[in-house]
Amino acid sequence: MEKAREIIIANRTLEKAKKLAKEVEEKTGVKTHACSIDKKVLKEKIKEGEILINCTSVGMYPDINSTLVEKNMLKSDLVVMDIVYNPLETRLLKEAKKVGAKIINGVEMLVYQGAEALKIWGIEPDIELMRQVVLKELKQ
């Protein structure tokens, strides 16, 4: 498996982004840059990128119409993941789908985090069952 050539970390606070970028680069050996969450900067970085992961709560219920990334910033050859799991399809994911990008919702992150927690306690998780339960509960 190839590793990333470069990682860009955007944060509301540039200093926090720089700190996280330094830590990521030290642990992965991948060149990592920091930037602020400025629409012009984000659009430029997304244009150059292949994968976009929203790791904020922006767009999570009840604030479902919010997004940091507008549709005109997205492209069809992008993979877009939003770690928000409620709603299953955030505004970001809906807009990414409209431009033809591959989308991944936050259920996967939620399920795999839970699975890792179970493994710590010596329990072998049933990933598919966990996914089904999460989806069932979110639909209620």
How is this structure best described in words?
There is one protein chain. With 140 residues, this protein is of the alpha/beta class. It has a domain at 1-37. Helices cover 43% and strands 16% of the residues. The protein contains 5 helices and 5 strands. The strands form 2 sheets. It has a 3-stranded parallel beta sheet, with helices on one face. α3 (91-98) links the parallel β4 and β5 (102-104). The N and C termini lie far apart (39 Å). The mean pLDDT is 95.
State the share of residues found in helices, binned by percent.
40-55%
Number of helices: 5
Number of strands: 5
Give the uncertain stretches in residue-range form.
none
Summarize the main sheet.
3 strands, parallel
Which shape, going by the Cα principal axes?
A: globular
Distance between the termini: 39 Å
Give the amount of beta strand, in percent: 15-25%
Order of helices and strands: EHEHEEHEHH
How would you state the average pLDDT, rounded? Answer: 95
Structural class: alpha/beta
| Rg calc | 16 Å
Strand order of the largest sheet: 3-4-5
Name the quaternary structure: single chain
